[in-house]
Amino acid sequence: MQSLYLIGFMGSGKTTVAVELAEALQIQVLDTDQLIEEESGKTIPQIFSKEGEASFRELEMLVLKKTPVTDTVIATGGGIIERGENRDWLKKNGLVIFLETSWDEIQKRLIDDVARPLWNNQSTDKKALLDRRVSKYKEVSDIIVQTDGKNPTTIVKEILSQM
Ligand SMILES: Nc1ncnc2c1ncn2[C@@H]1O[C@H](COP(=O)(O)OP(=O)(O)OP(=O)(O)O)[C@@H](O)[C@H]1O
Ligand SMILES: O=C(O)C1=C[C@@H](O)[C@@H](O)[C@H](O)C1
Ligand SMILES: [Mg+2]
């Protein structure tokens, strides 16, 4: 089967849901953020602080294009859709699932987060970033699941019912 790519904003649950979806389908799971950290030998906050966001986006594109296009669930980073090249690649190669999550819900989920450099950057307007990205997530998605107030098991069931 075609690989399943989970997309959505920080805190939408891509990493969490990917594990459970892969388990349900009995296929492997990958996460582009984890692959970037493994390949670079650095954490995401280190890459952002030492090399900058542009360098992170370059690594992210290279990692995305190396992901297996069959039999895998792949959690992506929240900004994977920022590059047109990535959007084109996702549309061509994957079954893309958008975990749509409201601003209020995202704020609740990430209240204690310290690992997401953009979330923790006081000069970034996160609400504006979400608003700007929503149309890009929708542009590439084959399936959209609303996640507010639902647990990962329910979200997985809804994904499977739409496949
Ligand atoms: N459906 C859910 N309901 C409540 N909390 C959730 C749900 N899904 C994930 N969470 C929690 O929200 C936080 C963020 O989840 P997760 O890391 O899976 O998001 P993500 O979409 O992978 O974010 P990122 O884009 O930064 O990688 C975690 O603390 C996780 O436990
Ligand atoms: O939304 C984003 O731009 C990001 C989300 C995370 O998954 C990581 O990819 C990184 O922290 C950037
Ligand atoms: Mg994640």
Automatic annotation (TrEMBL):
Annotated EC: 2.7.1.71
UniProt keywords, alphabetically: Amino-acid biosynthesis, Aromatic amino acid biosynthesis, ATP-binding, Cytoplasm, Kinase, Magnesium, Metal-binding, Nucleotide-binding, Transferase
Binding-site residues, substrate: D33, R57, G78, R133
Protein residues bound to ATP: G11, S12, G13, K14, T15, T16, R116
Cofactor: Mg(2+)
Subunit structure comment from the entry: Monomer.
Protein name stated in the entry: Shikimate kinase
